[in-house]
Design a protein that fits this description.
By secondary structure, the protein is an alpha/beta fold. 44% of the residues lie in helices and 12% in strands. Bound molecules: adenosine-5'-triphosphate (ATP) and magnesium ion.
Length: 485
């Protein structure tokens, strides 16, 4: 099916094919050239077709999708494009916010986030990552839930106190590495970690929803505050993508995508990932296509997207790019050369002379081949340009279907509580043993300590009791978050 997103100079519609949206896309252009509006126009069409959307809102200029636009404000464009059936429309949105200010709290438990993303957020080195992995392995294998930061601290303390046994089973664990992770967890707490590494964890399937009239829900991750920590921002979005990947079934190519995900400030994703993670991102982007998820990267500079991804993108919407430096000129040359166009079109010139809300559009035809590029004026959005007030935000949050599920945090029994009991018992045992020492000869006591240390005994019995109390082993997907069955 065709989505009309603009008109060419003969006022002929320029469209994208819905069945190609899972081949991913790019929206680029210098600041103020129309990227966000294009994203809104595309989102409105998708919602109308019943396709849910996930957007990150870095500037606070997306939540206004909920309100109908004012035709007066876009009168010139309507005239210019000869649009006489403009219908102001408000769209169904859900707001999410890691900090809970401008959306329902978006929380992720430590267990659910997994060691790969957490290690990135904490900026751990290789050795520290190793220790974090051990902590997760001990917890996962025993079905021990790490819900929040205090759980993670507990398990680290546990490893610290049973370092010998842990090292014997999993390889050397140094006290210095544990201490380093503990310090970084303090930093995470300073960033508000206790707010968002908590329960109830976001159930990603709640983002795949429609409203009563079967329009796709538009999920907006309010990221005005989150973006000030680029690493945290990109890991949250990446975690959402990997959750989608884990929970959606394989569907192959279909007429409509199951969901479209817009990744604003996309360069942050690639700049903040380690080499190993970057490889996984490439894999994820490739694999998620067959789950019917389309990803649009939004960025000022098209070269921010690594080649292996850029070369696969099915749709490119290029707003005006400016060339103040030789590097920028090279960027424009490079992107022009990558696009299919007739020789008489000077694409480099065209790209630099585009007007606001005008773009060069490269997309795939039904057979999957790139169509020759088209130059189009993008339609105006049917929703408003007016930013929401804080009161508006609160109203949307309170009216959300998911208010009851996510608004309040919960603190259920997890590693912290279970280990607290263990620590107490352990302390009691150690004390008892010290008393024993006084009674029995030194030599004998030392022998017993060696063969049957209370710590070993504690370690085993603690793990045994977790098994009984939690039961299920936790399986992880290839990005390290929970694997759904
Ligand atoms: N398709 C359009 N229809 C009507 N107005 C538009 C359109 N595209 C852009 N505009 C106008 O241009 C302004 C800037 O566009 P927009 O916010 O999309 O830029 P941007 O590329 O996202 O900028 P930044 O990089 O700063 O986020 C809009 O507020 C709007 O007034
Ligand atoms: Mg913008």
């Amino acid at each position: 099916m065709e989505i009309n997103i603009g008109k060419d100079k003969n006022l002929k519609n320029v469209n994208l094919l819905t069945e190609k949206l899972n081949h991913h896309g790019l929206i680029c252009g210098a600041t103020g050239t129309g990227k966000t509006v294009t994203l809104k126009v595309l989102t409105e069409h998708l919602s109308d077709l019943g396709i849910p959307v996930i957007l990150s809102d870095v500037k606070g200029d997306l939540a206004n999708l909920i309100n109908p636009g004012d035709p007066e404000e876009i009168k010139d464009r309507l005239d210019q494009m000869e649009i006489n059936d403009f219908e102001p429309t408000g769209y169904p949105i859900n707001l999410w916010d890691v900090y809970g200010d401008e959306g329902l709290p978006l929380r992720v438990s430590v267990s659910q986030m997994g060691p790969l993303f957490l290690g990135q957020i904490l900026e751990l080195n290789e050795v520290q990552l190793g220790v974090l992995n051990i902590a997760f392995r001990i917890a996962d294998s025993q079905g021990l839930l790490l819900l929040d930061i205090k759980d993670l601290k507990s398990i680290l303390r546990y490893i610290q106190e049973n370092r010998q046994e842990v090292s014997m089973e999993f390889g050397q664990v140094s006290g210095a590495s544990i201490a380093a992770i503990q310090r970084k967890l303090l930093l995470l707490e300073d960033m508000g970690g206790n707010l968002f590494m908590a329960e109830p964890s976001l159930d990603i399937e709640d983002l795949i929803a429609e409203d009563k009239s079967h329009r796709g829900m538009i999920n907006i991750l309010s990221a005005r505050k989150l973006i000030s920590n680029p690493r945290l921002y990109s890991m949250f979005l990446l975690w959402m993508l990997s959750e989608l990947y884990e929970s959606l079934p394989e569907v192959g190519d279909q007429e409509f995508p199951k969901l479209v995900f817009f990744f604003d400030e996309a360069h942050l994703l690639f700049n903040n990932a380690s080499k190993a993670l970057n490889e996984k991102i490439l894999q994820l982007v490739r694999l998620i296509r067959s789950k019917g998820v389309g990803i649009f990267f939004v960025s000022q500079n098209p070269l921010d997207i690594p080649d292996p991804i850029a070369s696969q993108l099915g749709t490119k919407i290029i707003h005006q790019l400016r060339a103040f430096t030789p590097r920028e000129l090279r960027m424009i040359k490079e992107i022009s050369q990558s696009l299919r166009h007739s020789d008489d079109l000077n694409l480099e010139e065209e790209i630099q002379n585009l007007k606001t809300g005008q773009a060069i559009i490269s997309s795939l035809d039904a057979s999957g081949s790139p169509r020759p590029v088209e130059k189009a004026l993008i339609y105006p959005p049917r929703s408003s340009f007016e930013p929401l007030t804080l009161t508006d935000y609160n109203r949307v949050i309170q009216n959300s279907n998911f208010y009851n599920k996510y608004f309040h945090g919960v603190d259920r029994e997890s590693a912290y509580e279970l280990l607290a009991v263990r620590f107490e018992e352990e302390a009691r045992l150690v004390k008892a043993q010290e008393e024993e020492k006084i009674l029995i000869k030194e030599q004998k006591a030392r022998e017993r300590e060696k063969n049957n240390s209370p710590v070993t005994k504690m370690f085993n019995s603690a793990l045994y009791s977790f098994t009984r109390q939690i039961g299920r082993e936790i399986a992880r997907g290839f990005m390290g978050s929970f694997k759904k069955k």
